[in-house]
Amino acid sequence: MIEIKNVTKSFDGKTILHDISATFHTGKTNLIIGQSGSGKTVLMKSIVGLLRPESGQILYDGKDLLQISGAQIKALRSEIGMLFQGSALFDSLTVIENVMFPLKMFTRKSLAERIKRAEFCLDRVNLKGANNLFPSEISGGMQKRVAIARAIALNPKYLFCDEPNSGLDPRTSILIDELVRDITREYNITTIINTHDMNSVMGIGENIVFLDKGHKEWVGNNEEIFTSDNKALNDFVFASNLFKMVKKYVIKEHLSDSLKE
């Protein structure tokens, strides 16, 4: 579990995050959502440790990232997996070499052990047989799956995903969402996803933190979001006519069930 308490972050005198507190649960897909400029990227970077807030606490299973020693931070980072927006694969390395990269950097495993672990991770993301291909030889969706395999290679306790569906078609996006959710549950990972994809919100939003202009405006799940009366949230999530229609349908069904009771 990751908890943030009263986190405030500013740049050049302008406050980007205003006293934010939230809990990100283990074994669940935790989403951070909000418009561009809402502070969600700054919040994720602060949680990971790429930015340092002026005040507050960032607790990894009770240990405050802002207070622990350099050696403890190094140990913590070996427990973190990252899935970057553009996959960030090394073009000059094959698929299996990309997955093996963190194993070579952060472990003392033998070559045979690294290959075995990488093959296991690739099999887990349904990429068996793609070992010797280069990133340029596979599709965007396959590249994302390679990136997920690399992110879980070190068997992380914490997984951060920055816009994992960026640049993908809707069908592939759903497959990536479901894969991240399944891996989160299977390995009991604390997963935090920074996204603006409403399909992800509705599909895998088990714990959603909504930011608006640097303030935490709402927390809930993908069922509660339909009955929320938070105006900023509704303006953001239900901007399209399609999602407006879905909300009306859900509310109608909810009222119908209530009357039956």
Briefly characterize the structure.
This protein is an alpha/beta fold and about 260 residues long.
Describe the SSE topology.
Elements (H helix, E strand, L loop, with lengths): L1 E10 L2 E11 L4 E5 L6 H9 L6 E6 L2 E2 L5 H8 L2 E4 L11 H12 L4 H14 L15 H12 L6 E5 L7 H17 L3 E5 L3 H7 L2 E6 L2 E6 L10 H7 L3 H20 L1
Parallel strand pairs: 3-8, 3-9, 6-7, 7-8
Antiparallel strand pairs: 1-2, 1-4, 4-5, 9-10
Helix pairs in contact: 3-4, 3-5, 4-5, 5-6, 6-7
Spatial sequence of strands, sheet with the most strands: 6-7-8-3-9-10
Distance between the termini: 37 Å
Counting structural domains, the number is 2
- Oligomer class: single chain
Morphology call:
globular
- CATH topology description of the largest domain: Rossmann fold
How many beta-strand segments? 10
| CATH classification class of the largest domain | Alpha Beta
**Helical element count?**
9
The helical percent reads: 40-55%
Name given to the CATH architecture of the largest domain: 3-Layer(aba) Sandwich
CATH superfamily of the largest domain: P-loop containing nucleotide triphosphate hydrolases
Q: Unreliable segments (pLDDT under 50, ≥5 consecutive)?
A: none
Largest sheet: 6 strands, mixed
Please state the CA-atom Rg, rounded to the nearest Å. Answer: 19 Å
Mean pLDDT: 88
Structural classification: alpha/beta
**What string, H for helix and E for strand, traces the elements in order?**
EEEHEEHEHHHEHEHEEHH
